[in-house]
Design goal:
Helices cover 35% and strands 34% of the residues. By secondary structure, it is of the alpha+beta class. The protein folds into 2 domains: 72 residues, no CATH class; 128 residues, no CATH class. Strands 5-6-7-9-8 form a 5-stranded mixed β-barrel. Strand 5 and strand 6 form a beta hairpin. The N and C termini lie far apart (41 Å).
Length: 209
């Protein structure tokens, strides 16, 4: 097991040592589940995906059986209220980050100076992340991202979209620098795995492509 997967498994073991299988109300089955965290509206789990490895998933109580709801004292009104506030604050934070990044990427008049300026901004915002792949499409992957110095309570970026990781199997781990491209893909902050790709995507976006 890779170091990041071992870390996830260790954290989940501390919080809930008993592994189980969970079947959601819509029929999805998660094998070898350990519960990493819980909120008023759901639980974060690690599980074994088809084909092996380790997966991370958030499950909502409204899609879970009654016995699990009772186990975590689920209250629908409390859950709905908290979930709405979390979504609102998350959206505000992401918009603030994106807008701040866009301001730094304003055009320079001179083409050469513009390229240097944008490249400098990209490099200044690069971060080293540990990723756990959730799903892929033709261009990249949705992954769970933690910073290199993350612990149980800090350094968790959450879900991100990474261009260029489309061949990364579900549940696989990846570590390296990510470079923000200044926009979102399906609601997740988007990144590239190198400076050139990030620069090209930013310029394409600016030109309307």
């Amino acid at each position: 097991m890779k170091p990041f997967a071992m870390l996830v498994a260790a954290v989940c073991f501390v919080l809930c040592a008993e592994a189980r299988d969970i079947k959601t109300l819509d029929g999805k089955v998660y094998k070898d589940v350990t519960i990493c965290d819980s909120t008023a509206y759901g639980i974060d789990i690690s599980y074994t995906p088809e084909g092996g490895g380790i997966g991370i998933k958030e499950l909502f109580f409204k899609n879970l059986p009654e016995d699990i709801r009772k186990e975590f004292n689920y209250e629908p009104k409390k859950a709905e209220s908290l979930q709405k506030k979390v979504a609102m604050y998350r959206w505000k934070l992401e918009q603030q980050q994106i807008e701040a990044y866009k301001k730094e990427l304003k055009y320079e008049q001179d083409e050469e100076a513009q390229e240097e300026h944008i490249t400098a901004v990209i490099c200044a915002h690069k971060k080293y992340y540990k990723l756990l792949t959730i799903s892929t499409d033709g261009n990249g992957a949705v992954a769970w991202a933690d910073s290199f110095y993350s612990n149980v309570t800090e350094g968790h970026e959450g879900k991100v979209y990474v261009f260029g990781l489309q061949d990364s199997p579900q549940g696989s781990a990846w570590e390296g620098y990510l470079y923000p491209v200044g926009f979102e893909v399906n609601g997740q902050p988007a990144y590239a795995t190198n400076t050139d790709d990030a620069y090209g995507m930013i310029m394409n976006k600016k030109s309307g492509n």
